[in-house]
Amino acid sequence: MRKEVVLITGANGEIGHGLITHLGQQGNVNIVALDVSPLDESLKPYCNRFILGDILDTMLLGRLVVEFEIHTIYHLASLLSTKAEYNPETAHRVNVEGTLNLLRLAVEQSQWQGRSVKFLYPSSIAAYGLPNLEVKERVGKVKENEWCNPNTMYGCNKLYVEQLGRYYAAHYRQLAADHDKNTIDFRALRFPGLISAVTIPTGGTSDYAPEMLHAAAENVPYACFVRPDTRLPFMVMPDAIKALLDLEEVPRERLTQYVYNVTSFSLTALEIYDIVKAAFPRSTITFSPHQSRQNIVDSWPADVDDTSARQDWNWSPEYDQQHAFADYLIPAIRKRY
Ligand code: SER
Question: What is the pLDDT of residue 1?
Fold first, then answer.
């Protein structure tokens, strides 16, 4: 008999850390973790198996089918928005072709199991693209179907994968007689910028917020790469994990869409600076905008409308802005350094 497991790709990334720690501490699922870089020692005890490998390696994914019965996939592996701009074609391969391989794996699994396989996918505010700051200010909160004209390769990849997910869930092999038997239960979240107290992001463009906070706590000077008035929505990692798990749990019939915005608070870089400065008064933080990265952040919405998530599956973040900084980020980061 094959072992029933949950597959987590991008296991060693920021969301992977949060998710594996949470699921591992709960202890009621078997975790198979996959990443291109070695798994942190702290995560190993929570995983039944760690596989060092690439989601573009179809042989490796094929071997997973032999060994495991995968009922849920958290497909977290991705090249983030800044990194993706350094090699857009490689990003496309990882973010789109890699996901296609995982969708294919999910189809195969669902056929073996005679039931649908859940496919949880973190999309992003990067799926949006606002034409200029005047529009960004005027529109405020954006809904899932508005302003989907991303300016980054990463954003294009996220938006397209959302469509692929919908296709695989609803229309895959639609001309085949048995096309609707065993499908993929695709569920995506458009996350805002995520801030964790335990890990530091690599290669994103919302990274200035967590970087500022961690640098201040560590007492190393930090030059913020966006203007002080730059506004983005954010969420702390425990709420991102909560959103993923809440969405995973909800019965399919309650979901009216495949892709949901979720968010917690919206802040300018200056507001983050003020909070960080108050907590770490000796820190040295300056503003030194990097024009190209600034343009990317300027094209992302100042806030998102998560009404659908609230209505369909009772989404609500546990941490508002005050609670996030005062009770999670600042104490945990202070302890870390
Ligand atoms: N945080 C991500 C990035 O900056 C957005 O999804 O790339």
Answer: 76
Place of tokens 């032999």: 66
Stated as kind and residue range, the H or E segment containing 62 is: helix 58-67
pLDDT digits over 107-162, tens only?
999 999 999 999 999 999 999 999 999 999 999 999 999 999 999 999 999 999 99
User: How large is the average pLDDT for residues 188-203?
Assistant: 97
Alpha-carbon span 149 to 179, nearest angstrom: 31
Q: Are 260 and 127 in contact (CB under 8 A)?
A: no
Closest CA to 232 of 267, 196, 190, 275: 267
Residue 267 CB coordination number (10 Å): 22
DSSP single-letter state for residue 241 = H
Sign of the C-alpha dihedral, residues 190, 192, 198, 199? positive
Helices 208-218 and 269-279, interaxial angle, to 10°? 20
Asked if residues 302 and 271 have their Cβ atoms less than 8 Å apart, the reply is no
Asked whether 128 and 150 are in contact (CB, 8 A), the reply is yes
- CA angle (122, 188, 271) in 5-degree steps: 55
Burial class (CB in 10 A: 0-12, 13-18, 19+), 175: exposed
CA atoms of 144 and 131, how far apart (whole Å): 17
Nearest CA to ligand 1 atom 2: 204
Rounded to the nearest angstrom, the distance between the alpha carbon of 23 and the centre of ligand 1 is 23
152 CB within 6 A, ligand 1: no
Compute the distance from residue 15 Cα to the ligand 1 centre, in Å.
Answer: 12
* Ligand 1 touching residue 193 (CB < 6 A): yes
All domains in the chain, ordered by first residue? 78-336 (3.40.50.720)
CB 216 within 8 A of CB 246: no
89-112 pLDDT, tens digit per residue, is: 999 999 999 999 999 999 999 999
Ligand 1 contact via 205 beta carbon (within 6 Å): yes
Taking CA atoms only, the protein residue closest to ligand 1 atom 3 is 204
Contact 211, 283 (CB under 8 A): no
